[in-house]
Design the sequence.
């Protein structure tokens, strides 16, 4: 990006009358996701409206969706350099900048419950992992809200159900999923989720992994008419609101309070929004010509067998990538998963507001920013 444009966006992205509690602040938010994506429609956009209402019009945000300013693979750089003051970050695309967050993202194949994964991930990245906080500081950003997708599956052009059906098929995937698919005889293709529609349309991939809600948010139901009706984990490596550390430091205290009180709501809105959109997609699938096909026994048994060694693999790969205490960090995250399983079963029980309350108590009352 030309230097003059970056400077322009920096100025446009954070305009603040310094030192005034009633300052007029204009932030900017960049995301590679399209405007129609659930992260934006039920999470970011409503939150921005709350910012304006709760600040009496003093705090506003200009959004740049669809990768128009902040690309997926350059998200941290875009926030750090002030091209946008905040943005969506996916650690799978920037593992060298956020290695400790990425370590536990690699446990996605173990995910079954989106609320549990969202709660554990927020607590790990925002409070329980000092190494994660150090990564953020070094990168010039602050991590403020995470989420989990609805359970992942495979969305394909053809009706594929067995391990034999998938042999040699090109699968849009990343991270731990790519490793598993390769072991099954599939061919992982590394393109970002926002590039998936075109990749399937052009025949670059036969299937994509992802939440079935993507059929709507990425309009994949135009090109993927067959969904494997099973769960292959969740994805919890998305940072919904990563903020430029200097911009955060300059915010007036009252505006910091507005952001802080809205972050657990954002995490809950997107986590529950994914689940609702998944239900909506199932209801609309028939009119879109989409079929949900159960996997056969060869697929199910191969997946269950693969999971037996997944924790050990994640620990070993983490050490190879330069995280010497990977064993301890993975065990810590697994402990948080158990903690949030108990909270979900005994307290949340599908109630979004109770999830917000739990996040406030267990996480956001303890953050250091």
Sequence:
């Amino acid at each position: 990006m030309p230097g003059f444009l970056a400077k322009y966006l920096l100025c446009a992205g954070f305009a603040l009358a310094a030192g005034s509690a009633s300052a007029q602040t204009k932030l900017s938010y960049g995301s590679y996701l399209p405007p129609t994506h659930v992260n934006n429609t039920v999470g970011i956009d409503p939150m921005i409206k709350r910012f304006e209402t709760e600040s009496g019009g003093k705090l506003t945000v200009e959004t740049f969706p669809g990768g128009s300013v902040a690309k997926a693979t350059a998200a941290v750089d875009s926030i750090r350099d002030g091209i946008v003051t905040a943005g969506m970050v996916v650690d799978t695309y920037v593992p060298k900048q956020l290695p400790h967050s990425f370590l536990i993202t690699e446990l996605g194949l173990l995910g079954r419950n989106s609320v549990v994964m969202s709660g554990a991930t927020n607590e790990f990245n925002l409070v329980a992992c000092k190494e994660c906080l150090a990564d953020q500081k070094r990168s010039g950003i602050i991590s403020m809200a995470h989420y989990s997708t609805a359970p992942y599956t495979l969305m394909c052009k053809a009706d594929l159900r067995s391990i034999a059906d998938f042999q040699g098929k090109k699968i849009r995937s990343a991270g731990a999923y790519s490793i598993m698919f390769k072991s099954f005889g599939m061919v992982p293709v590394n393109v970002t989720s926002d590039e998936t529609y075109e990749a399937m349309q052009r025949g670059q991939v036969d299937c994509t992994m992802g939440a079935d809600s993507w059929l709507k948010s990425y309009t994949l139901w135009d090109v993927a008419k067959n969904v494997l009706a099973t769960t292959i984990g969740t994805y919890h490596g998305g940072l919904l609101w990563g903020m430029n550390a200097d911009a955060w430091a300059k915010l007036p205290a009252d505006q910091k309070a507005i952001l802080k009180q809205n972050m657990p709501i954002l995490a809950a809105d997107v986590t529950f929004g994914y689940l609702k959109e998944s239900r909506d997609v199932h209801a609309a699938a028939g009119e879109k010509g989409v079929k949900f096909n159960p996997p056969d026994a060869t697929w199910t048994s191969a997946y269950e067998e693969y999971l037996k060694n997944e924790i050990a693999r994640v620990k070993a790969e983490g050490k190879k990538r330069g995280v010497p205490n990977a064993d301890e960090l993975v065990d810590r995250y697994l402990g948080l998963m158990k903690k949030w399983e108990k909270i979900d079963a005994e307290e949340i029980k599908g109630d979004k507001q109770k999830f917000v309350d739990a996040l406030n108590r267990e996480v956001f009352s303890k953050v250091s920013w």
